[in-house]
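name: query_chain
kind: protein
chains: 1
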Amino acid sequence: MLNKKTRCLLPFMLCLSFPAWTACGGDDPDTPMTNINLFGDLDAETQAALPLKAVTSLTDIGLWPSDLAIYGDYAYVVDSGNNAITRIHLTDFKVEKNYIDLGADASPYAVYADAEDIYVALQGKGTVARISSANPTDIATAASDLRAPTAILTAGDALCIADSEYDYASPQNTKGSIHVITSQGAFTVPSSSPNPAFIDTISLNGTTYLLSINAGVIDFATQTPPAKSCIDIWQIPQNLASAQPANSVCVSNANLGRVTTLDQMLYVGDGMTPTLYKLPLGSLLTKDAQFTYMPILNAPKGTTTPIAIGDHLAVIDFTSDSISWAAESAPQTYYLTTPAENPVKGPIDIVYDAARKQILILNSLSETIDVLAIK
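structure:
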């Protein structure tokens, strides 16, 4: 687990290797544009050629925002510094600060929303809170006795929580566990490697699996990558009941982060090097499964987050304040700032609002959200 100041060191983005939207540049309409400042001073012809349109940049969303989730007509932002959740309407972009007051010393870290509830990981209290989406003052404890919850999701009737158990005083003692609460009972199982920072679900042959992305232990003083980083694959709830994952796929000297899937392929970025790993979904359960290494273009230091948008793959890059669409031979990078604007946005999370065909990018350093429309 990482706190609000160090979370950006975890893997958060990826890069692409698919045919992507092309923007026209120069005299050749097939020449992809690069180094475009979406929030800069673009002429009308350039703007018309871009696959993205800058809609707005939302400010006053909170102090030290650390996570973003959307459901229905709303986005929810973790306002870590004020122990609150900010709500944003996805149509008129009205910002409701302190929409949910989580109380002093809550230290919220992650948020997840579904049809009925909003779930928030409270690291200061070692709990996950469940809040009614219809009544933000109706706050209950969904799970307790956690050390450092970092990620939450629901799958069917299962509530799944990653507990990184990160030990800042003695990082070498860091472990990690996955907590799942279902109608068949509650399960707590250890992760195969330390620091399960993210979780996700996939469907294989009609069966739902939980992915636990274990980022590994980071030496912040030397910026040394973890010796090993793994993704555990759990069938819900069978593997969890036996405390043995269906499979684990590991990478040496890596710091794996959030995943995305596209065209039957799983992609995961590396938070400390400009690297993308990919693996066919069909091989996830095979014992000899291995990630294929791909260097990431235009991401000099890593810390990247991937997202699948329709048939395309995109990546946000914390180090360059950018979002990229890329083919292997034609990367296209769109910057969220111009050099004159002192680019220190620090994008750490991205979500796709499919209903409105827009992207929301959460910037931790500038404490803003950039909203981009897809043409």
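note: The helical segments are 44-49, 238-242.
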